[in-house]
Amino acid sequence: MSLIVQKYGGTSVGDVERIKRVARRVVQTKAEGHRLVVVVSAMAGETDRLLGLAAQVSDAPDEREIDVILATGEQISIGLLSLAIQQQGYKARSFTGSQVRIQTDTAHTRAKILSVEADRVQQALQEGAIAIVAGFQGVTAEDEVTTLGRGGSDLTAVAMASALKADLCEIFTDVDGVYTADPNVVPEARKLARISYDEMLEMASLGAKVLQARAVEYAKNYGVPIHVRSSFNMSQGTLVVQEDAEMEKVVVSGIAYNKNEAKITVLRVADRPGIAARLFGQVAEANIVVDMIVQNISQDGTTDISFTVPKADYPKAMQIVSGVAEEIAAQQVVGDDKIAKVSIVGVGMRTHSGVAARMFEALSRQKINIMMISTSEIKVSCVIDAKYGELAVRVLHDVFGLAEGAMVEERL
Amino acid sequence: MSLIVQKYGGTSVGDVERIKRVARRVVQTKAEGHRLVVVVSAMAGETDRLLGLAAQVSDAPDEREIDVILATGEQISIGLLSLAIQQQGYKARSFTGSQVRIQTDTAHTRAKILSVEADRVQQALQEGAIAIVAGFQGVTAEDEVTTLGRGGSDLTAVAMASALKADLCEIFTDVDGVYTADPNVVPEARKLARISYDEMLEMASLGAKVLQARAVEYAKNYGVPIHVRSSFNMSQGTLVVQEDAEMEKVVVSGIAYNKNEAKITVLRVADRPGIAARLFGQVAEANIVVDMIVQNISQDGTTDISFTVPKADYPKAMQIVSGVAEEIAAQQVVGDDKIAKVSIVGVGMRTHSGVAARMFEALSRQKINIMMISTSEIKVSCVIDAKYGELAVRVLHDVFGLAEGAMVEERL
User: Which CATH superfamily is domain B3-173 in?
Assistant: First the structure.
């Protein structure tokens, strides 16, 4: 008898009929003899409805009160799902973040989980009940309601799985797993049977929106195996697990693609300490998240700095950077929001050489110019002209043999 | 500087515009220099919407889960009202029943308040904030969410006022006070400046829906002065307070009127111990609340028992009673759902004699037949034919001189 944590997102519990469907699926797992904890999000649209109400009464809503309001979304879901499961003749009991005691720091609307005391949930499981836990929410040491930020329900599920030493954390979503590339771009893309935490992290942060990066990180730190699968069918999804020797045989596991960034370059910046801090400090103050940063060696005591920001923040970022550029006597600021970032990801890169070179060669053969390059141990990202984005993904998918199952597929 | 508890019902916070209006009124009281705790209900319609969702997933919803779901209604209200008050430039902080620590017993959907620890609310007040408290909800010693039943927000307000030793508990509602009779029936009805807890209790239980009877009882036990007033205008309402010598000078303070009951009579019941217990035991098991019970002296070893039940429960009650009547070999069961109950209420009855006689005389002068009579220390109720109900109210209002201000009106 295993202990399984399942997580269903807002779309899966979007209306009463879908809640009933989730209840049937939960009951089916329970009937197989497992102990079961189910984490749910707010019904799709509810969080936006609540934020809309708050926006109508306040121009700059206090985040403490926003959390009080938002936490109701998941509280309704857990109650309804418990009732739907009980209607099927099974025992179920709901728990808010406060009742579980998912303790967080005090950073309202984006709190970090500090600890999970799951005594009451354990108790419910021992009594044979299915425990239904509100995702996305926690409580501070002073009993203040907090929320974990968008996608926080994934994190709740992983944290519950870790606290309960669960055998598996199943994340049900609207895609049926992690693919070697976006199937909309590459029709031959294959579903991966397994992927390592680090690869998943790179995929998540590079734009594959299957799993929240923070949840993957938490799972990695605590060794929680995650199964990403579809809530609409019964097929096996992708297992996100510790990296093993088998995985290292595969050089590239997947191609990530992101066309929601823009690029800014500051030309001829004085190459002395403190300049970069000043530049990125002001950008950070405006809550703009900088992704890639590239700076090359200096010539004549000056250097060029390029970086990418989310496309939505591009106009604001250009304005800020132009201001700073003047202060620091840089020559010029140029920007481009018609770019795409294409990345190859794979733990095999740690042990295989020449992978980046193969990527650059493949792109150059198509006459695709590379504007920026950034690498990590298990990833190489290139910024290119937006119009070549999809072509680049297809070419790389082909070059690294992903369609043929270069990665050993395994059944769970 | 007084400490005031204000309570606004679901209609007063029914939409975003109304919440803003409540915020302005709250801020106005705060600006007068008072410390302020505001208790709010769920937005009008929200509780029914949530119950509707629950009914769609479950035939017989578990009351624990119902409470988890219902409690979200007030949680949204407190967050929105806090934000609306902050928007006016004032400090506000919201508290759920669990956060205040309104501790109740475990009777879900109709829990009783056991104690109120208001340390955190005190703290907020000391910091100059307006404390916004969720009405209608509490928490058990085991941290389970409970609700107090319909109208429970009045009770929350009174309990908060008691725990904080507030100077006044203001209940804002859609009527502007307590009247000598329903103004729809008696155009000359007068708003009472003051009424005693006991009178208010009789009025509440006799069908005047201004204040929840449980809230009045709690206020009486802990000596909390209540001011019932309109949320739509600034006029003084009615003060519900301890009875004093001035009040006793007035024989009748008000006329209560209830046309939502039906009458059942069991004829020729054997007059021996245990029979009444058996009859009313079975009615109670069906969750039917019996109001008046009248039994006269026996003749030939048998007696007649009459009682009233809510009109909605009348068919079910007739069915149950007919069954019992057969078991206990009663002669016959007769029922009538076309009745009205008219009552005179006043603490002055304790010290004045002949009040009931004056009532009976006034009714008989109009040829109104009295079917049942029931009295308490400060009340006389008569059940009459429904068609004479409004006439009876007007006649009694006149006979006891209520229009002329028999009760000494006082400004607050």
Answer: Acetylglutamate kinase-like (3.40.1160.10)
